Automatic annotation (TrEMBL):
Classification via PROSITE patterns: AA_TRNA_LIGASE_II
Species whose genome carries this gene: Bondarzewia mesenterica
Upper classification of the organism: Eukaryota, Fungi, Dikarya, Basidiomycota, Agaricomycotina
Protein name per Swiss-Prot or TrEMBL: phenylalanine--tRNA ligase
Domain Aminoacyl-transfer RNA synthetases class-II family profile span(s) in chain numbering: 258-540
Listed InterPro entries: aa-tRNA-synth_II (IPR006195), aa-tRNA-synth_II/BPL/LPL (IPR045864), Phenylalanyl-tRNA_Synthase (IPR002319), PheRS_DBD3 (IPR040725)
Length: 552
């Protein structure tokens, strides 16, 4: 029984394997001998393989034969033509059926004959033939009338059966098709037992240098050949200028990097400047306090945040600003009554892995406001991006040092979360802030619509939400046509005066900001439903190499 493909691995007696094992030279010799006897080979699928009475009809055998033909052809010992065919091969399940019988036959075989031996209970059957076979096979075996119930158990209902599925599998395996025809093949394809495969076969004729003895051609011209004069009579192997080179291994960009680059381009095109976000480690002050996150907030718990143990304490933040921040927390100010809870310096100085890139935004906004405070500080000279695009400007306004800014960043954040298919302890945030005089919530919503439209998402919904540092706050939902539901894509809001005023911004300067996940749109773009396929040690490298570029 010749078995191709997968099945051949399990059947070392198969002809294909025999073909593969014949030394390439033996196969070449066989082709030459056959040509010598018959003048030509009309169809290489009829070649008789030595040591086996089977035909070399399978695709794998033809591939091996092609290698031999090419080798003989390069020496012009033969000529050949290629013919294409469509044939079928077994899937792993089909191959198993070819070997062990169909699920229903395996169920039948596991049962005692009626009246002989103890009936097998369904639970026992599962143990004998496995869950899958027991599940699929029982139903079909009943339907075929092969098995019957006896008490709580099952017994054979027929002394012998004909396993048509197994026979079909064996027929496809040996011939690549079924005599029963296309309808039967289509049925097996639907059951995922066989798949179509393109194949080829060849017609072979004698070439100008035909001979039944294979002289091994020389591949190198050596010093020895030149001095002895042997080069004059030697036959040299022809160069194969058509041979394809070995594919070179190049680097490949990870899908996250591709999506990141596309988003980056959208921001740059919209006149945004990129914030420096290289500090993964921040202090409680910049990550939370500067953002008016109360010191008792649950996000500041070890359950949610990774704290550093060495060093555990940050350098002190700028003194005056620190005092204004602690004051607004404890006692309020700028129209706020604050949290009225005692200020804790230790909490503020704790070092942690930033839980959001809003820590970087806060630092940047503090630098942006330096001119309003009349200070020159390091980092304040920065390309702050184009203006928000608002046209009404108050003319004749006294210069209070403010200049508008549009900033974005895409970088990593860390959260002490339980990991599952969609959550990791670290991920990327796409963050941004826009600062200008008189910005309103409408500017934020308008920005979101423009930004997401550039990513090909036009259906957006906004839902009121809560952040300690923004009021109002909006969660952004996008309609996902594949999932057929609304998915949360971001969080945003207008920064509170309790955050902006201590930095020194004039009252009429408003700032809106947002945070969007990078992983979620990437998973949607590439149809990935487990985050571990995207990040971590289980990422299949081929996926990364083959992932297409993204264009929003
Ligand atoms: N920091 C918020 C996102 C956000 C940024 C800026 C303003 C409002 C919300 C988050 O991590 O979800």
């Amino acid at each position: 029984m010749p078995v191709t493909g997968i099945a051949s691995l399990a059947r070392p007696d198969s002809a294909v394997l025999t073909v593969a094992l014949i030394m390439a030279e033996q196969l070449q010799q066989l082709i030459l001998n056959t040509l010598n006897e018959s003048g030509s080979i009309q169809d290489t699928r009829t070649l008789v393989i030595p040591g086996s009475s089977h035909q070399a009809a399978s695709n794998d055998a033809q591939i091996t034969i092609l290698g031999a033909l090419n080798s003989l052809d390069s020496r012009e010992m033969i000529k050949y033509e290629t013919h294409e065919t469509l044939s079928h091969v077994l899937t792993p399940e089909g191959a198993q059926i070819a070997l062990e019988g169909s699920h229903e036959a395996r169920v039948w075989a596991a049962l005692p004959a009626k009246g002989k031996g103890k009936p097998v209970t369904p639970a026992e059957l599962k143990k004998i033939v496995g869950d899958e076979t027991a599940k699929v096979g029982q139903g079909r075996a009943f339907k075929n009338g092969w098995i019957a119930k006896e008490g709580d158990g099952l017994v054979k209902n027929k002394p012998s059966i004909e396993d048509a599925t197994q026979q079909d599998m064996r027929e496809v395996d040996s011939s690549g098709t079924l005599k029963a025809g296309e309808k039967a093949l289509a049925e097996l394809r639907k059951r995922k037992l066989i798949v179509q495969r393109k194949g080829q076969w060849f017609t072979v004729h004698k070439g100008p240098n035909f001979s039944t003895s294979i002289a091994k051609p020389e591949t190198d011209l050596s010093v020895e050949m030149m001095t002895s004069g042997k080069w004059k009579t030697a036959t040299f192997k022809k160069y194969n200028f058509e041979a394809e080179g070995i594919p070179t291994n190049g680097g490949a960009l990870h899908p996250l990097l591709k999506v990141r680059e596309e988003m980056r381009n959208i921001f740059l095109e919209m006149g945004f400047a990129e914030m420096p976000t290289s500090s993964f480690v921040e202090s409680g002050f910049w990550c939370f306090d500067a953002l008016f996150v109360p010191q008792q907030h649950p996000a500041r718990d070890v359950q949610d945040t990774f704290f550093l143990s060495d060093p555990a304490v940050s350098l002190p933040p700028p003194k005056d600003y620190y005092d204004r921040v602690s004051k607004v927390h404890e006692h309020g100010g700028y129209g706020s009554m604050g949290y009225r809870a005692p200020w804790n310096d230790t909490e503020s100085r704790k070092l942690l892995l930033r839980t959001h890139t809003t820590a970087s935004s806060a630092k940047m906004l503090y630098k942006l406001a330096a001119r309003c405070r009349g200070e020159t500080i390091e980092g304040a000279e920065f390309d702050w991006g184009g203006t928000s695009g608002r046209v009404e400007r108050k003319e004749g306004l006294q210069d209070d040092g403010f200049r508008p800014a549009k900033l974005f960043s895409i970088d990593r954040v860390f959260r002490n979360e339980t990991m599952d298919a969609t959550h990791l302890a670290e991920f990327h945030q796409v963050e941004g802030v826009v600062a200008d005089r008189g910005l309103t919530l409408a500017d934020l919503i308008g920005f979101m619509r423009v930004f997401f439209k550039k990513m090909g998402i036009e259906n957006l919904r906004f839902k009121p939400a809560y952040n300690p540092y923004t009021e109002p706050s909006l969660e952004i939902f996008a309609f996902h046509p594949l999932l057929d539901r609304w998915v949360e894509v971001g969080n945003s809001g207008m920064f509170r005066p309790e955050m902006l005023a201590p930095m020194g911004f004039p009252k009429d300067v408003h700032v809106h900001g947002w945070g969007i996940s990078l992983e979620r749109p990437t998973m949607i773009r590439y149809g990935i439903n487990n985050i571990r396929t995207l990040v971590g040690h289980k990422v299949p490298i081929e996926n990364v190499e083959k992932a297409p570029a993204v264009r929003f």
